[in-house]
Design goal:
Elements (H helix, E strand, L loop, with lengths): L6 H6 L6 E5 L7 H4 L7 E5 H9 L6 H11 L8 H7 L1 H14 L3 H7 L7 H10 L3 E2 L2 E2 L5 H9 L16 H19 L3 H11 L6
Antiparallel strand pairs: 1-2, 3-4
């Protein structure tokens, strides 16, 4: 099955408007998040909101970090990863600020996945919303759902990624970016639109 055959659909995907509604009740145990709701019971966060927040200052703010976590894990996430990340939010902010100024390489990426509470799924969200590049490629989200899809979906253009696993993800991330960047240029879409298509439809298409 060829992704290029869905080019018209992919180019129409509303990347910036893609949002999640986050309920305060899912975050009642994390005070840093609860205070962002003010008197509201829910909050809607879009990709566009996070891009704008990421560009609003040279230093990566705690608000940006928290809202990316909220967008990425609207029901509060699993286990203690988010709590662990927020307990070390200054370290995360410093890492992301340095990455925003200088972009990243493979070693930087590996170091980022060693931050408390941060795996590839979360780190790639931060990098994507800050528009950080790895080598000459724009970063984009790579999480477990996408990795599972890449292994099973059988898209002709992404056969180089069929051996990817979550444990191999950091080492194969640059290859992923290269393939996504190349394919998005052929389609005439952004890397985010292509990632959205793969995330939403990739595992639910039959040739």
């Amino acid at each position: 099955m060829r992704i290029i055959s869905f080019a018209k659909v992919i180019k129409q995907l509303p990347e910036d408007q893609h949002s999640f509604s986050i309920k305060k009740t899912n975050w009642n145990n994390i005070k840093e998040v609860v205070k962002l709701f003010d008197k509201n019971d829910s909050m809607n966060i879009s990709r566009g909101d996070l891009f704008e927040l990421g560009e609003s200052s040279e230093e990566v703010s705690k608000e940006f970090i928290i809202k990316v976590l909220m967008w990425g894990y609207p029901t509060g996430g699993r286990g203690k990863n988010i709590q662990n990340a927020l307990a070390h939010i200054d370290d995360i902010s410093q890492y992301l600020t340095n990455s925003k100024k200088n972009n990243i390489n493979e070693e930087d990426l590996i170091n980022g996945t060693k931050l408390s509470g941060i795996g590839l799924s979360t780190l790639s969200k931060f990098l994507y919303f800050l528009k950080i590049e790895m080598k000459e490629y724009p970063t984009v989200i790579l999480d477990l759902r996408l990795i599972t899809m890449l292994r099973k979906a059988g898209f002709d253009e992404l056969t180089n990624l069929k051996e990817i696993t979550y444990s191999k993800g950091p080492k194969m991330y640059c290859t992923y970016l290269k393939e996504i960047s190349s394919l998005s240029k052929k389609i005439g879409c952004s890397v985010g639109q292509l990632e959205m298509f793969l995330f939403i439809f990739g595992s639910n298409l039959k040739e």
